[in-house]
Design goal:
Structural class: alpha/beta
Number of domains: 1
Number of helices: 7
Largest sheet: 7 strands, mixed
Radius of gyration: 16 Å
Shape: globular
Bound molecules: magnesium ion, zinc ion
Helix content: 25-40%
Strand content: 15-25%
Number of strands: 7
CATH class: Alpha Beta
Strand order of the largest sheet: 3-2-1-4-5-7-6
Distance between the termini: 14 Å
CATH topology: Rossmann fold
Order of helices and strands: EHEHHEHEHEHEEH
Length: 204
């Protein structure tokens, strides 16, 4: 049984293919395998949110307008698959800006949770970096997931984890480690669909 209702996603390397400081909407590509489980989870009452560090803005490599154009393209791509994001937050600051919203700090959660009435005990945080996992843990998320797309492989190795995962694997406990290691976003979401399907079958 799973209580997960809120699916909080990193963007780059998790929901879409990693591009170095992405600013061209034409370069937005969904990670393969996400659409079907996202549709099914939405039908089961889950909502999807983005929390994205965009330090390229603070570094002067892209503008807020570039970010918004990329986001519009992402929303259009998702829409063409029948998927809607419930909300999105981004941090435009660089590491030296001393803000409170750059993951692993939790300012984006403060904003999203207040605006959309989110609760950590029914939330999973999914990302491709240790900072995403630290963010999820700081929030008190029910689960954290490190995907092996984007920077995930290198980050798993840094956390002392074996990145040769078939699909989804529970993670041995350790500092900074996620609850789950997943080949990609779709693999974890497929597992969530199955868990929710079981809950549904039991209720009938
Ligand atoms: Mg990322
Ligand atoms: Zn910030």
């Amino acid at each position: 049984m799973t209580r997960i209702q809120t699916i909080l996603l990193d963007r780059d390397g998790t929901l879409i293919e990693e591009r170095h400081y992405l600013r061209d909407p034409e370069q937005v590509v969904l990670v393969p395998g996400v659409a079907e489980p996202m549709r099914r989870l939405a039908a089961l009452g889950c909502r999807f949110f983005l929390a994205s560090n965009q330090s390229g803005i603070g570094r002067g490599l892209l503008t807020t307008d570039d970010y918004l154009a990329v986001h519009a393209r992402l929303e259009a791509l998702l829409q063409s698959e029948g998927i809607t994001l419930a909300g999105a937050a981004f941090c435009p600051h660089g590491p030296a800006d001393d803000c409170s919203c750059r993951k692993p700090l939790t300012g984006m959660w403060t904003e999203l949770s207040a605006r959309f009435g989110l609760h950590p005990e029914s939330t999973v945080m999914i990302g491709d970096k240790a900072a995403d996992i630290a963010f999820g843990r700081a929030i008190g998320c029910a689960e954290t997931v490190l995907v092996l797309t984007g920077h995930g492989r290198d980050e798993a190795i840094k956390l002392g984890l074996d990145p040769s995962v078939g699909t989804v694997q529970a993670c041995p406990a350790g500092p900074g480690r996620p609850d789950w290691l997943s080949r990609d976003l779709g693999a974890y979401l497929d597992m969530l669909v199955q868990k929710k399907g079981l809950v549904h079958a039991h209720r009938i």
